[in-house]
Amino acid sequence: MLYNLLFPLAAQEPLFNLFRYLTFRSGGAIITALIISFIVGPRVIRWLKQNQHGGQPIREDGPESHLLTKKGTPTMGGLMMLFSVTISTLLWADVTSHYVWICLFVTLGYGAIGFTDDYLKVSKKNTRGLPGKKKLLLQFLIALGAALWISAVTPEALNHHIALPFLKDVLLNFGIFYAPFVIFVLIGASNAVNLTDGLDGLAIVPIMIAAGCFGLISYLVGNAVYAGYLHIPLVPGTGELAVFCAAMIGAGLGFLWYNAPPAMVFMGDTGSLAFGGALGTIAVITKHEVVLAIIGGLFVLEAASVIIQVASFKLTGKRVFRMAPIHHHYEKMGWKESTVVIRFWIIAVILALIGLSTLKLR
Known about the structure:
Layout: H1 2-6, H2 22-52, H3 64-69, H4 78-92, H5 98-124, H6 132-153, E1 161-163, E2 171-173, H7 178-196, H8 204-221, H9 224-230, H10 241-259, H11 268-285, H12 289-295, H13 297-316, H14 326-332, H15 337-357
Antiparallel strand pairs: 1-2
């Protein structure tokens, strides 16, 4: 909004020319989202405590320590992140960009699904929440809308294609299967992040790492010079998503202030579904869906551990892990929560570096 209001006045006031630069607006988005998080955070946490009366229900079959250390902690902390990201993005991004609105559509839509799930868990005092089939149906409908919207605004030469990492100028035309592919990416990303959100600070740092990587990717993909040099698809207009990614980082830092061990609030499905969906949407728009599986490899690992555990138990009656998702497996092995979290952060950084290397290794 500031870009649309102030940049046209640059001829009269040269200072407003700053709003032309994505780097300046991205920096503004980080700071704005962080400040908003610090302002609204205590108020949101206080309101959640007053209305939840006991906080998030804790799994009885989970690690025994969680029944003591996490009982009474409020959930739905993703609300402060959604508010921060939305306001910051609208302030600093070009509000005429379809790509920005698509990301906000998916983020807020998935956030609403997560909020409903969290509300049902808290109000009914159990861990079931929204029935799985209904949750998947709602996710499917939003992802379908996003897929059709993306196809409509993406250049025709790219609108049904995906790019492959490590290969120059290789595009696969998915045709009628493109929409199902996009739906798979969005639902998969949102649920993978949701499964990762099980320990204090575990999910939010990898989310910020992935957001930082895709902020850079969005900038490069939207720039004709850099895209040509790196032999990656040029998708004009995606640079504005760098502002959205920056807002995610700022909101994430603000949330981490309250989510650091011992957590004052949990993200809940409100945040994890929303920002998993956001990352999936950015990956689709920038034609880096496969790279998301590398940069977000930690999320993939968490989701895979659940799939393997369920499949193994149904087929053989035996469990591969002591508990799934895999971060609970290591807790069961005796690792302290802080050890699991920090080591998983390290893994997330390594995978992010590998993912970014695909930009040059072609």
